[in-house]
C-alpha cells in the first residue's frame, strides 16, 4: 500500500482516510493490516472548532502499518465481530485482510475509483471460512464469507507421468470453449477489472499456485479448467 509508487488517484492524494482506490491496481486480491485501535469520533467539523455543523459520529480504526485510518461502516464492523468477537476492546492486535469492491453497498452515484469501497476479505486469525450476514435497513440481507488468509496456497501434488500424458493441456477448440465459458462467468463479478481479477484468480486456484503467479488457460488440462469454472461459480455474486 505504499504511496511512493502511486497506481491510483487515491495514492496521489492519500489524505487521512483509507479509500478503496488505495487498494486498487496493486496486483493483489487483498491487503492484510494489524488493527491498532478502534474509537468513535465526530467528523462533522474536521477538527475546526469554528465550524458549527451537526455532529457526524463515525467509528474509526487505525492500523500499525499505515498512518491512514478507516471509517468503518457497520457492514465491516459485523465482519470484524464475526471473526474476532463482539468485544471491540479485544480487536487491537488482530490482523484483518481488506480489499476494494464496487459490489457490496458501493457509494451511490459515484464513478471511477470513487465507486469502490473498502470491505473485509478475511483474516489470518481464522482457520476456516466464516459466514457473515448483514441486514442493512430496508434492504435485503447481504451474505458474505470471510476467508482465512494466513496460509500460503498448498503446493500442487506431483502428478504421475502416466496421468500427465493422459491429460494434455488445452488447445484448439477445447481451449476456445473453456475460455469463452470462464470469461462469461468471470464477467458476473462486475467491471472489466474485477472480471479479469476473478478470471486470473480461478486459474491460479485450479492449479494450486500462489497469488502472484502468472497462469494461462493453455497451461491447464480439461479437468483443471472445469475446476476453475466451478470455483468462479461458487464465488460469483448473488
Structure, described:
The protein has 6 helices and 7 strands. With 238 residues, the chain is α+β, with helices and mostly antiparallel strands. It folds into 2 domains: 9-148, no CATH class; 161-235, no CATH class. A hairpin with a 7-residue loop joins strand 6 (130-134) and strand 7. The longest helix has 16 residues, at 192-207.
Can you tag this structure with a few keywords?
6 helices; seven-stranded mixed beta sheet; 2 domains; 238 residues; alpha+beta
Task: Explain briefly what this protein structure is.
The protein has 238 residues and is an alpha+beta fold. 28% of the residues lie in helices and 20% in strands.
Radius of gyration: 20 Å
Identify the strand order in the major beta sheet.
3-2-1-4-5-7-6
Order of helices and strands: HEEEHEEEEHHHH
| Main beta sheet | 7 strands, mixed
Provide the helix percentage: 25-40%
Given helix and strand content, the structural type is alpha+beta
| Coarse morphology | elongated
Beta-strand segment tally: 7
The number of helical elements comes to 6
- What is the overall pLDDT average? 85
Question: In what range is the share of β-strand residues?
Answer: 15-25%
Number of domains: 2
Whole-Å distance between the termini?
30 Å
Segments where pLDDT lies below 50 for 5+ residues? 161-165
Amino acid at each position: 500500500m505504499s504511496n511512493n509508487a502511486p497506481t491510483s488517484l487515491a495514492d496521489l492524494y492519500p489524505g487521512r482516510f483509507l479509500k478503496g482506490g488505495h487498494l486498487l491496481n496493486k496486483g493483489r486480491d487483498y491487503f492484510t493490516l494489524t488493527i491498532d485501535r478502534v474509537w468513535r469520533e465526530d467528523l462533522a467539523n474536521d477538527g475546526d472548532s469554528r465550524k458549527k455543523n451537526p455532529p457526524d459520529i463515525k467509528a474509526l480504526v487505525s492500523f500499525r502499518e499505515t498512518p491512514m485510518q478507516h471509517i468503518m461502516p457497520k457492514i465491516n464492523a459485523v465482519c470484524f465481530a464475526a471473526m474476532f468477537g463482539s468485544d471491540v476492546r479485544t480487536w487491537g492486535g488482530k490482523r484483518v485482510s481488506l480489499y476494494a469492491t464496487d459490489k457490496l453497498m458501493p457509494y451511490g452515484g459515484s464513478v471511477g475509483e470513487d465507486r469502490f469501497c473498502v470491505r473485509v476479505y478475511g483474516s489470518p486469525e481464522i482457520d476456516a471460512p466464516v459466514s457473515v450476514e448483514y441486514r442493512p435497513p430496508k434492504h435485503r440481507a447481504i451474505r458474505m464469507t470471510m476467508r482465512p488468509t494466513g496460509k500460503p496456497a498448498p503446493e500442487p501434488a506431483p502428478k504421475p507421468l502416466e496421468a500427465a500424458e493422459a491429460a494434455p493441456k488445452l488447445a484448439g477448440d477445447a481451449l476456445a470453449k473453456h475460455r469463452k465459458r470462464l470469461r462469461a462467468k468471470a464477467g458476473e463479478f462486475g467491471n472489466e477489472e474485477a472480471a479479469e481479477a476473478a478470471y486470473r484468480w480461478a486459474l491460479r486456484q485450479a492449479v494450486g499456485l500462489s497469488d502472484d503467479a502468472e497462469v494461462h488457460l493453455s497451461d491447464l488440462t480439461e479437468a483443471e479448467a472445469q475446476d476453475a469454472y466451478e470455483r468462479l461459480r461458487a464465488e460469483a455474486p448473488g
